[in-house]
Write a structure and sequence with these properties.
By secondary structure, the protein is α+β, with helices and mostly antiparallel strands. It has one domain. The protein has five helices and four strands; from the N terminus they run ββαβααβαα. It is globular and about 60 Å long.
């Protein structure tokens, strides 16, 4: 049985979380790099959609958007427009991220796995890490409701 990876992202406007999603990827990835690259493509699509809405609302945004990823190899593939033997199996739609980088719409930045906010919606986490990421997302802790 093959497991499909999860795509997860959190989009912020300033310090406010405005969009988030987790979804099982449609295909089985051959590597974690491929799974991360597919997640980057989905996130890029969301960023473009958000930018259209903000434009319609006449909210000025400065480009490029920063796309954070905890996989350095996926970032390298996105930033390097040279053909890679290891990536020839990726479908063309995944190169969407690369195109948006070249256009100046977004830039990539590495974030440590410990600080990857999307992990809260894609992975089981220990209590301490869950609390840490929840606070980074600006989620408030509520006291338990008495029985």
């Amino acid at each position: 049985m093959s497991a499909r990876s999860l795509t997860g992202y959190c989009v912020f406007l300033g310090t406010s979380l405005i969009s988030w999603k987790t979804k099982k990827q449609k295909t089985v990835a051959k590597s974690t790099v491929e799974a991360e690259y597919r997640s980057m493509s989905a996130t890029t699509s969301e960023l473009e959609w958000v930018s259209y809405i903000l434009h319609d609302l006449q909210v000025l945004v400065s480009l490029p958007f920063t796309l954070y990823c905890d996989n350095k190899a996926a970032i390298h593939i996105a930033e390097n427009p040279i053909f890679h033997e290891r990536t020839k199996h990726l479908r063309i739609d995944c190169h969407y991220t690369r195109d948006k980088l070249l256009e100046g719409f977004l830039q990539t930045a590495h974030v440590s796995s410990q600080d990857q906010l999307a992990d809260i919606i894609t992975k089981p986490l220990g209590g301490q890490q869950h609390h840490f990421l929840s606070s980074k997302l600006g989620l408030l802790s509520t006291p338990p409701i008495p029985a």
